[in-house]
Each structure stands twice: as structure tokens, then as C-alpha cells.
Design goal:
Oligomer: single chain
Pfam family, one: Pribosyltran
GO molecular function: glycosyltransferase activity
Largest sheet: 3 strands, parallel
Number of strands: 5
Helix content: 25-40%
Structural class: alpha/beta
CATH topology: Rossmann fold
Distance between the termini: 11 Å
Domain Phosphoribosyltransferase: 88-137
Number of domains: 1
InterPro entries: ComF/GntX_DNA_util-trans, PRTase-like, PRTase_dom
Family: Belongs to the ComF/GntX family.
Length: 139
Amino acid sequence: MERYKIKGEYSLRHCFQKEIYIALHSYQKEGFILCPIPLTKAKREQRGFSQVEGLLEFSHLSYCSFLEKIHEETQGLKNKAERLKTPYMFALKEGSVVKDKKICLVDDIYTTGRTITYGYDCLQKGGAKEVVSFSLWRA
């Protein structure tokens, strides 16, 4: 995971393609729209790609990017206590309509659950019918 996410070895996105497809396609068959947790602009520019979007695209899974980061802080550099104190970090992208939709948030690493909780809250406030989450790894 470190080589893919931190070091930017984009070619490694194929490693879990089959497993990701099987797991997330089952959500799509139940009517869920996949929504990747967004990166900060700085991280996207640094890596040149979004690791979650890369995995979804390589697995041939459609998704909608409903969320955008409103704080540029990187969660990975914080300890657990600092992560739990992080201010609200997401907003619905302009023009995003989530009302009455079933959404599956997709993230790469689940640590404290704070990122998923913020994404969940944002989508719920936007009127989403149901929000679930899927993380590739748990730290």
C-alpha cells in the first residue's frame, strides 16, 4: 500500500483489481453509487493521481465524485487524537445532487473512521437515502 499510495507507483493498482471489483460491484448491483473520498489538491498534484479513483477506474467501476475537500490538511500525518479533533473537512461539490440516492463511500485506509464519518455526515445533510462505506485496508 505504501508503494502505491505514498510513493506513487500507479502501476500497482492492478494488485487487487479482482477483489475490488467483486466487492464493489455487489454494492452497485444493490443500487449504490460509488463515491471516492477525495484527496487534497496538494496531494493530487504531488502524486499525479487519486489512489482510490485509480483503483476504481482500473477495476472498471463507475463512480461519482460528490465530495470535495474544504481543508487542505493531510490526515495521514496526524496521530489519533489529532485526527479526532479535525474540523469538518468535506462539502458537496457544486452541482452534486445526492438527495434520495444510495451511496457507498470508498476510501483506501480506515484508521479512526473520522474521514468516513465526515463524508457520511456531508452526504446525509445533502439528503442521501442511505450511505455505507468500503475501505480497502484497516490500520
